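ERR on first pass: missing label on line 2. Operator R.T. fixed the label and resubmitted. Corrected input:
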Amino acid sequence: MTMTSAPTGAAPARRRIATQAAFETRAILRNGEQLLVTVALPVLLLVGLVQTSVVELDTGTSTRVDFVTPGVLALACVTTAFTSQSIATAFDRRNGVLRLLATTPLGRGGLLAGKILGVLAVEAVQVVVIGGVALALGWQPVPSGLLPAAGLVLLGTAAFTALALLLAGTLRAEGVLAVANLVLVLLVVGGGLVVPPSELPGALAHLAAFLPSGALGEGLRGALLGTGVPPLSVVVLLGWTAVLGAGAGRLFRWH
Amino acid sequence: MPTIEAPPGAAVVVRGLRKTYGGRDVVDGLDLQATEGAVTAVLGPNGAGKTTTVECCEGLRSPDGGEVRVLGLDPVDDAHRLRARVGVMLQDGGLPTGVRALEMLRHVATMYAAPRDVGELADRLGLTSFARTTVRRLSGGQRQRLALATAVVGRPAVVFLDEPSAGMDPQSRHAVWDLVRELRSEGVAVVLTTHLMDEAEDLADVVHVVDHGRVIASGTVPELLTAGSGTAAPTIRLDARPGLDTATLRAHLERTRHDGGWHVEESAPGEYVVTGATGPSALAAVTDWLAGEGVLARRVTTGRRTLEDVFLDLTGRHLR
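pass 2 clean. output:
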């Protein structure tokens, strides 16, 4: 796809992609179920985990809010990049929306770019809302960790968007709806997002750090608690992004 | 890839197109052509390969064999150059369900450098009454009109319309047909698939009849109507009570006209078709016979075969 020059009759690529990103963002933020999963669920989890001790957490020397917030941000990233995106894309695919937009000057590349930017825009909203609630609860992130954290969120977004597209491009829409929600629950409970892999029972303690969820959770905790980003997290996220991206590129069916 | 000779004015050229799904040839050596400033109908029963053919022209599917050229370009390889010049209306609409009708049209319009005026287009196709309704709540006909609007909003040179009138009420259909005729007069090449005979008859300059993945007949509507009928003479059709004795009508025709070769058939209960050397006196003979039988026909028509006759003759009458 040419990003710089627009073919005759087409709007400039930048405008097409920006318009599509805004369109995708509005579609998510206007959808009640999507808002429930992407905003309400993480906020409830944050407040619940900080204000109660229903879930036992070994927070080490950190306060509970400092320890929980990075994991909730990791969860928020997964809800938008994976759960919400896979479901939206699957239904758009079933309804022919992907095919129709692919025939407009937007094209397939522009559609993908618009989707990714839309995900990032929703994540920005999530960070503002969740970060705001966390700050109100006394969250004190390490300032030097903010930039690495942003980088990790981008990496996590890449890996989970690739997984979302892999799912959405290969399964029926109803199947994606079921699988995406199931996977989200499994990742929250045992994926190392909110509860660190080391505190998970049995084999999960070893396995979760190699899942994209565990890598994202551990990475964000390392960055925002000031203990440093584990190199393993970066390697794992890069690896998953490569594998899932290649899979989605190869297996995605437009029809 | 060898280029194919495209005659002047040919906007779409398909030669020997083949497309196979799971070992089954859905399109099997299909040839067709669509020219600028003309409406080309691809007519065929369900499953004939119409949608697959236009999807190959739209760049949504890659052919397994043969060649497709749209405006002289390859729909897949040159997609980025074609997209701004080709408008598409998909059979399943392709409209996101959670978006308001006019918002979708405006969104697609922003993809083009010089789109049509959205408000004017919305008025033309009667979209304003449901402009703020989400696609999910639109009726089938409303969705079709919105999908047509999105197909033409970018001022395309070629438009593919897959079953444009499906699910439309008569008013919507005529609004759509008027727009299609206007596109034609502006020089746009319009390609539409349909299984509606009246749509093809009223709109199309050229009809390609497709069955089992091939074009089995092509031509203008008058050409198709005279070809294969075996006779240039018009038929006489009458609607009356079912069960009239067709043999006596035939005998009456032979007796009064002093010639043979008459064929009288009750094609459906109460619907009769008379073929032969029809003319003014044959019509008089038919009505004379009806009077003798004491039968008042509900309707007597003379005239050419309809495209439906041609279509059924070509594709058979069995359901599929």
